[in-house]
Design a protein that fits this description.
The protein has 7 helices and no strands. It has helices at 2-18, 34-55, 62-77, 84-93, 96-104, 110-124, 127-167. Helix 1 (2-18) packs across helix 7.
Length: 171
């Protein structure tokens, strides 16, 4: 496993160095593919189920809490190390065990949570824009390290190939 990871890293570094057009792109299933259809169906099923659960009397919050967990994780992933206060605020407001307990006791204020999430998204930007920003940052990092990689590529590839050979059983 470690050898495969090393070979993959070596191949990636080699591709970055040699291919001036190399860019990180989001994985998107091809149009009309089974994978894309399954993704779309699952997406619709989730939102349909969420709508049904929230319209029940009393509402069921299982899917909503899973969605809040994903939103929390995404919001936290966009923060930089210096954003301690924002991190604390997100952790405090989106305290999932507390939210679960409030839901079980009929005390969940979904409106307040929604306003918090929308406000936080507004302060950080819209998810799709942030995803594009992450891609742009990754591509900027790749283009920034390309000159350094070119300087060190021969030595790096030689060392990685030697490590690969040392881990392979003799034949």
């Amino acid at each position: 496993m470690e050898t495969a990871k090393g070979v993959t890293n070596m191949a990636l570094a080699h591709e970055i160095m040699l291919n001036q057009e190399f860019q990180v792109r989001p994985a998107e299933p091809p149009e009309g593919s089974l994978e894309r259809k399954v993704k779309e169906i699952m997406h619709k099923a989730f939102w349909d189920c969420l709508e049904v659960q929230l319209s029940e009397d009393p509402p069921s919050y299982g899917h909503a809490i899973r969605l809040l967990a994903e939103i929390k994780e995404t919001l936290l992933s966009f923060l930089l190390p210096g954003h301690g206060r924002l991190r604390s605020r997100i952790e405090e407001v989106l305290d999932l065990p507390l939210i679960q307990q409030q839901a079980e006791n009929g005390a969940l204020d979904i409106g307040r949570l929604s306003q918090f999430v929308i406000g936080m998204m507004g302060s950080l930007a819209i998810f799709s824009v942030l995803d594009l920003m992450k891609m742009d940052m990754a591509n900027f990092a790749v283009s920034s390290i390309r000159p350094h990689l070119m300087q060190q590529s021969v030595e790096y590839e030689r060392n990685k190939f030697q490590e690969f050979l040392e881990k392979q059983p003799s034949k």
